[in-house]
């Protein structure tokens, strides 16, 4: 079967599913529906869910395509999926909650919290702070391909303990230790995106609160935010609601297994568009959700505050094009704030405009090739534009 025939069949299948969904809801497809369905067919995306938040309220949400292509199960806004690096914003919220509880300081040497000591061999006397970790300026680096090849476990949660792995990665003599785990830059002076830094920050939260990150976030975030389907591990979520994951290779869809990751604070949360919208509204609304103050206003203010300014800017950063909060950053040429993420079979966006008026959450259960990544940004941009239309409607 040639490529164009496959595309037409995929497009037709998506249209049939979309039509049935609209019929059930007594709704006619709008121009945004038609656009997304067409883009999914052209780009080879199996399932997609999205929500638009306007003035801190969900104004629109919808699912398209399949969470299980073989069995024809639709992808909806309640479908569960791992949210990849968007998980770092949850780790950041847990970190700030612990600061709010006076259990942590953003500017304390992390070695004062750890049962082992981390020293950058290039700058052994320099302290590394939680603020450095949260702004990706710690000088701790992900050593590829080891970092991705060794930490993902198909079909199960990771059997490795987070603390054990971190000690073996950062302490001389450990089986994963290398000088290449560090940058030749003093902490706080150079920005390089660091998954391992987020994993370390999450581990510090666990040590200082006395609770695993999944337990702590459930108590202080997920429960009060009514995120009942959200969790960190395969073992604690309803797998019947979890999407299948897909990868497009050679113009064919390949299903890939679900997986767990040792360094879960950097990308382990599993949530739905519906649940994650509660979390984003809370952050956009100064820590409040449905009249409940989940995080203190000052906590959220510091989490979202631009950390790079005239008094402190990494040598390789122009704050006009890139700035950072606490595991929260500017995106798309500093026109958006939030986070996005990708993992095998996963692409997620959680971004707002700078005024926090129009925000978009976008989930997709399909990996595209690196040179096709811009297609996801195109769909996100169309959703954002539609959000602006909805906001400006009389």
Protein described:
This protein has 394 residues and is α+β, with helices and mostly antiparallel strands. The chain has 2 domains: 1-47 and 60-76 and 370-394, no CATH class; 79-241 and 263-334, Beta-lactamase, CATH 3.40.710. The protein contains 11 helices and 16 strands. The strands form 5 sheets. It has a 7-stranded antiparallel sheet with strand order 3-2-1-15-14-13-12, with helices on both faces. A 3-stranded mixed sheet has the order 7-6-16, with no helix packed on it. Strands 4-9 form a two-stranded antiparallel sheet. Strand 12 (329-331) and strand 13 form a beta hairpin. The N and C termini lie far apart (49 Å). Residues 1-26 have low confidence and may be disordered.
Can you summarize this structure?
The protein is α+β, with helices and mostly antiparallel strands and 394 residues long.
Pick out its properties.
seven-stranded antiparallel sheet; alpha+beta; 394 residues; 16 strands; three-stranded mixed sheet; Beta-lactamase
Distance between the terminal alpha carbons, to the nearest Å?
49 Å
Number of domains: 2
Q: What is the 3D form?
A: globular
At the fourth CATH level, what is the homologous superfamily of the largest domain? DD-peptidase/beta-lactamase superfamily
User: Helical amount among residues, as a percent range?
Assistant: 25-40%
Strand content: 15-25%
Strand line-up across the major sheet? 3-2-1-15-14-13-12
Largest sheet: 7 strands, antiparallel
Write the H/E string, N to C.
HHEEEEHHHEHHHEEEEHEEHEEEEEH
Number of strands: 16
Q: Average the pLDDT over all residues and give the rounded result.
A: 92
User: CATH class of the largest domain, anyone?
Assistant: Alpha Beta
